[in-house]
Amino acid sequence: FHRRLALLVVGLAATVLICVSLAVVVQRDASDKLRQLAHVELEAAALAREFRGDVDDLHGALLRIGTEAAEDSIVVIQQRRQKLNEWLSERQAATNGSENERRIVQQIATELRAYLVKLDALSVSTSGFIERPDRDTVVMFDDSANRLQSIADDFAAAHDEELRGLLQASLNSLLWMRNLVFVCLALLLAAI
């Protein structure tokens, strides 16, 4: 009887030790996933905000064409054009995004190219951004800027899809850990 009891206690202790070890591993995995989640969320918001801000600055500079601040506008237009192209190049070079995110980046590329072609045409028609553009041109650029910003919001949403996947994996890990702890407690109670 003592031998069986000793084997049972040793087996129970080993089982509890294994369960606790697994719970620690799962907890670390869940913590890592939550850290990744926070990073991805911050990154998605920052990327979309940066793009939207550059589009806003560019559009604001376009609206000042033909006014006293036109020289500043030309510099802002050149700088924001370069920043938008760099942002797009970085997003196209990134390989860690989902298929949906890559598709949206391609939409941004197409819309941005169209916007920049219109911008080049505007430069010619306003004698190098000296003359004020007509109302229809301003409305056309308003629409294009709104489309670009809307697609940037879609990009952030697609980027956030990764968040949902990470969150689901973290929740699954935590549920597994909780169930594991309950099994260990049940084994302990059954042994007593």
Short description:
This protein has 192 residues and is mainly α.
Q: Can you give a write-up of this model?
A:
The radius of gyration is 29 Å and the shape is rod-shaped. The chain has helices at residues 2-63, 70-93, 99-125, 135-191. It has 192 residues and is mainly α. The protein is 89% helix and 0% strand. The protein is built from four helices and no strands.
The helix/strand series, from N terminus to C terminus, equals HHHH
User: Helix fraction?
Assistant: over 70%
Q: What class do helices, strands and sheet pairing give?
A: mainly alpha
User: Helix count, per DSSP?
Assistant: 4
Which radius of gyration do the C-alpha atoms yield? Answer: 29 Å
Q: Which segments are poorly predicted (pLDDT under 50) over 5 or more consecutive residues?
A: none
Shape: rod-shaped
Percentage of residues in DSSP E strands? under 5%
SSE order and pairing:
Layout: H1 2-63, H2 70-93, H3 99-125, H4 135-191
Relevant terms:
192 residues, mainly alpha, 89% helix, rod-shaped
